[in-house]
Each structure stands twice: as structure tokens, then as C-alpha cells.
Design a protein that fits this description.
Layout (H helix, E strand, L loop, with lengths): L4 E7 L6 H10 L4 H11 L4 E10 L2 E10 L9 H10 L4 H22 L14 H16 L4 E4 L2 E2 L1 E7 L2 E5 L2 H6 L5 E2 L4 E2 L3 H10 L2 E2 L6 E9 L10 E9 L10 E9 L7 H10 L4 E8 L5 E10 L3 H11 L6 E6 L4 E9 L2 E10 L2 E7 L1 H11 L3 H14 L12 E2 L3
Parallel strand pairs: 1-4, 4-10, 5-8
Antiparallel strand pairs: 1-12, 2-3, 6-7, 6-9, 11-12, 13-15, 13-16, 14-15, 17-18, 17-20, 18-19
Helix pairs in contact: 1-5, 1-7, 2-5, 3-4, 4-5, 4-7, 10-11
Length: 411
């Protein structure tokens, strides 16, 4: 990521719709006049946008209103909407974003109804207000200078909803199609995520994640139509910059250090690996190899954060007999981790919880602590380990569950 990149994050944990996301971006500082001009470039003199301040479950928010200036707007196909966008005088990023969103909508609706995407009749989605929402969101992101967008897991709702073809289950089929590969959860009763909202998130956001590292500049809150007791019906956006103040410029960047060693006493290797990990290596491991003339050896590999490369390289030379170290730049993607203490046999053991978008991916009891407890209770390690796994499950640490409070793992 560029040091001056403008990043934005969408909080869709209460659901998402096109007008809610547009309201959040306008609330965060996007000019309503600029958004209106972009919409007029696509459907001239057809809709008027306005904003109002409302509260949702006691939270202040901006509610966008889209007023149709023409009667009986037509049900459009993806082909006709694409033609409107391609002929409009819009910034390249705005046009490309809107085309990507409607393309995803067309593909999803086509799969649901069993027709080619170009022949999909969008019904409500093709009305002026949905065109205004999609083009408006893309224009707002462009004006705010957002170069990278991420979003949370999306609350999709539950129950039934009335549509053109009758009563259908929530999440509606198009939302499920659009959610492929994205993290979602129920989140409440009714339709919380609309197809337009889901298409905007999945077409424009680069990743599903918790709030990313950034220097926060501004935020905005957009309201839906309903004021639901006990649950603010809002979408939030957080906008900031990654200027290096909050951490490494690129947290996914790392270097693999490696060396082939054939003359080190094998009994030394466990201590070498331990020293490297204590010195800040993200990981360190050995690979058995066969060198020239049939000599058995090992390849030492060390995954090093950028800021620890020099120190770990020096340590490899100090702790091993190698006379050379190779270096390869790599990228890594790591799940967020949290430690949760779980009661077991009158004590507690820490369980490492790997999570993504606020949901548990896997949970693993810490082996060293389990072994220490087994020794203290004079029990076999395997017995205590099995009990620790069962205790983790009993405490709700299962894949897909919400991440419970714990202490962050910064290693």
C-alpha cells in the first residue's frame, strides 16, 4: 500500500443497502452536488437527491432520499444500463465501479432466474433510485479520494420478504449469490442486506476484514428507512490514511531467509529454532535435504518481518555453521489472533483463536500450557489435550461463532 493511500472501511454489521451506504459517504464529507452531477450524467433530469438528519436507535445518521422526476420508470435490462453508463461523461473510476457493480447484479440475477445476464430485467434494481445509489456511491468514493476499500462481514437478516414474484426467504437468492466468498451472518429479523447493497460491497471492496490499520480522518453514518428498536439500522464508513503511523507500511510484506547446512550437530537445531523465534521470527523450520555426494543436510528457513531481517540474518550466522544466507521477498496473509482463557481441571489454559471478520476460524489450546498442567496433575498429556479441546468447544470456540473477548496476540 502506498504510504499516502486513502483507505475506507464499511461497517455492514447491521446490514447494507445502496441508499444507506450513499448516506454514510455523504455524511463523511462527499458533496451532494458532485454526487447529483454524476447521477445526472447517467439519467439526466430523472431523479433528485436530498439528505436529512435522522436518528436510528438513538444514533444520529444521514438519510438519503431519491425523488423520481419522471413517472413510471422502466424496468431495465443489464444491456440498457450498461449503455447508459458507457455513454455518460463520468470519471473513469466512477464509470468502471458502477459497471462492475451492475455486472455483479446481472450475473447474480441471471443465475437465480436461469437467464443470460444481458437479458436480466432488474425490476426494482433497474429503477432510477438504484442507478442513483450505485453511481452515487462510486462518485462519492472518487470525490473522497478513496484508493482502497475494505468491508466487514455483512448482516443479511432472516425471515421472509415480499418481492415482485411473491414471498421469498431472507437472505433473498440474489444476496446469497452475491455473498459467495464473503463473510455473512444473520444479524436480526427481516431483510438487512439488499442485492444492491451486497453488490456494492462485494464488487468495490478488496477484502472482508475487521477495521484495518489507518490514521482515521473522518467517518460517516448512513440510515435505512426503518428505526428498529434495540438495533441501529445504519451503515458506517471510516476513512483515513495509511501513513505508517499505525504500524508497518505493508503488514503483509516479509522476507524468507534460508541456508543449507550439512555440518551442524542435529542436537543443536531445536535451540537454534527457539532462538530465532524469540528474536522476532514469524516462523522458523527445517527441511531435510540431500546435498552433493549424497550428504544428508537441512535447509533452515526463517520467515522474517521486514524490520527484523538484519537481526535474524546475524543470528543465523551466529548460531549455525552456514557461510551464506539466501533472501526472498514474499507476502503473507495472516488471520487475526486472540487468546482466550478456558477453565480446565481447576485451572485455566490459553486457547489461541484465529478469526476473520469477527468470526472464529479455528481454536487451538496452547500445547506447552497443556503439557505443564498435565505434569502438575500427573496425567498423560494426550488426556489433558483432549480435555482442553473439548473445553474450548464447550465454551463456544467453534468455527463460525462470534469471537469472544480476549487478549490480542501481537506476535
Amino acid at each position: 500500500m502506498n504510504p499516502s493511500a486513502r483507505v475506507a472501511w464499511i461497517d455492514a454489521t447491521a446490514g447494507v443497502a445502496g441508499d444507506m451506504l450513499l448516506g454514510a459517504l455523504v455524511d463523511a464529507g462527499a458533496s451532494l452536488e458532485t454526487v447529483q452531477a454524476a447521477v445526472d450524467a447517467v439519467v439526466a433530469s430523472s431523479v433528485r437527491l436530498s439528505r436529512a438528519q435522522v436518528t436510528r436507535c438513538g444514533m444520529r445518521a444521514t438519510k438519503m432520499e431519491v425523488e423520481a422526476l419522471v413517472g413510471n420508470p422502466p424496468h431495465r435490462t443489464w444491456r440498457s444500463i450498461r449503455g447508459l453508463l458507457e455513454c455518460a461523461e463520468l470519471p473513469e473510476s466512477v464509470c468502471a465501479g458502477a459497471l462492475a457493480v451492475f455486472a455483479r447484479l446481472a450475473e447474480a440475477e441471471g443465475r437465480v432466474h436461469g437467464v443470460p445476464a444481458d437479458e436480466v430485467h432488474f425490476h426494482e434494481v433497474g429503477a432510477w433510485d438504484s442507478i442513483a445509489d450505485v453511481v452515487g456511491v462510486c462518485a462519492a468514493l472518487h470525490e473522497l479520494g478513496v484508493t482502497r476499500l475494505a468491508a466487514s462481514a455483512v448482516a443479511v437478516g432472516s425471515g421472509q420478504v415480499r418481492a415482485t414474484h411473491g414471498s421469498i426467504p431472507v437472505p433473498v437468492p440474489a444476496v446469497l449469490e452475491l455473498a459467495a466468498g464473503w463473510q455473512v451472518f444473520g444479524g436480526g429479523d427481516g431483510e438487512l442486506a439488499t442485492p444492491t447493497g451486497m453488490a456494492l460491497v462485494t464488487a468495490l471492496a478488496e477484502e472482508c476484514s475487521d477495521l484495518p490499520r489507518m490514521r482515521v480522518g473522518r467517518s460517516g453514518v448512513g440510515a435505512g428507512s426503518k428505526d428498529t428498536p434495540g438495533r441501529p439500522n445504519v451503515v458506517r464508513v471510516v476513512i483515513g490514511t495509511d501513513d505508517g503511523a499505525a504500524g508497518p507500511a505493508d503488514p503483509g510484506s516479509a522476507v524468507v531467509l534460508e541456508a543449507n547446512v550439512d555440518d551442524l550437530d542435529p542436537r543443536v537445531w531445536p535451540g537454534v529454532l527457539t532462538s530465532l523465534l524469540r528474536a522476532g521470527a514469524s516462523d522458523a523450520w527445517l527441511v531435510p535435504i540431500l546435498m552433493k555426494k549424497g550428504r544428508p543436510a537441512h535447509t533452515l528457513r526463517v520467515l522474517a518481518p521486514d524490520e527484523r531481517v538484519d537481526a535474524l540474518r546475524d543470528l543465523i550466522f551466529h548460531e549455525t555453521s552456514t557461510i551464506g544466507v539466501r533472501e526472498t521477498a514474499v507476502r503473507k496473509t495472516a488471520l487475526e489472533r486472540t487468546w482466550v482463557e478456558v477453565p480446565l481441571l481447576g485451572a485455566t489454559v490459553p486457547v489461541k483463536v484465529a478469526h476473520r471478520c469477527g468470526r472464529v476460524v479455528q481454536a487451538t489450546p496452547e500445547f506447552d500450557d497443556v503439557a505443564a498442567l498435565a505434569a502438575d496433575r500427573a496425567l498423560p498429556v494426550r488426556t489433558v489435550l483432549e480435555a482442553a479441546v473439548a473445553a474450548a468447544l464447550a465454551n463456544g470456540l467453534v468455527p463460525g461463532a462470534a469471537v469472544p473477548p480476549g487478549r490480542a496476540d501481537h506476535r
